[in-house]
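Progress report, Aim 2. The chain analyzed during this reporting quarter is listed below.
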Amino acid sequence: MGRQVERILQVASLQRGDLDLVRAQLDGHELVGAVAKSFGLRVNSLGGRLVVDRTSSPAPLAADEVHLGAALDNLLENAVKYVSGPPEINVSSSVRGGTLVIRVADRGPGVPRSDRERVFEPYYRCPTGDRHDVKGHGLGLSYVRLVARAHGGEVRLDENPGGGTVVVLKIPLDRQEAS
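Predicted structure tokens for the chain:
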């Protein structure tokens, strides 16, 4: 309950634009690896598999590690929450054109094309299928989008060939550190 209240307050602050990000220098690939490693224990306990693919080139960010880490954690949580059976999750991070590109791919039921933008609205949940038995308040992806935008980035959903969803999160590199 406390976590949900905190998420509601964070979303409200981000929507108003009055949440001060505590930016620090960090490597985006290392953050992805750390979040995936801690989440991997949960995936393993469910009999699933979490594969991480990070490129070796540096991904310097001036980012809020707590919020960006929480956004990544939320994407992994969704990849587990919406799958029946052991989760199979692939996480990758790479640098393209001055941007850190993070992809989280799952083998869940996927998100219908008509809902791929709406799921980023606060409190919206897909109305179809067996998703109503999944706990949540429809705040996770809106939080992820607000965190991405607060960092000058973006997030979108794509279809995963063979079934499931791919979330693509893009965060601009720190221009001073990247040069």
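Helices lie at 2-16, 28-45, 65-81, 140-150, 175-178. The mean pLDDT is 85. These observations will guide the mutagenesis work planned for the next reporting period.
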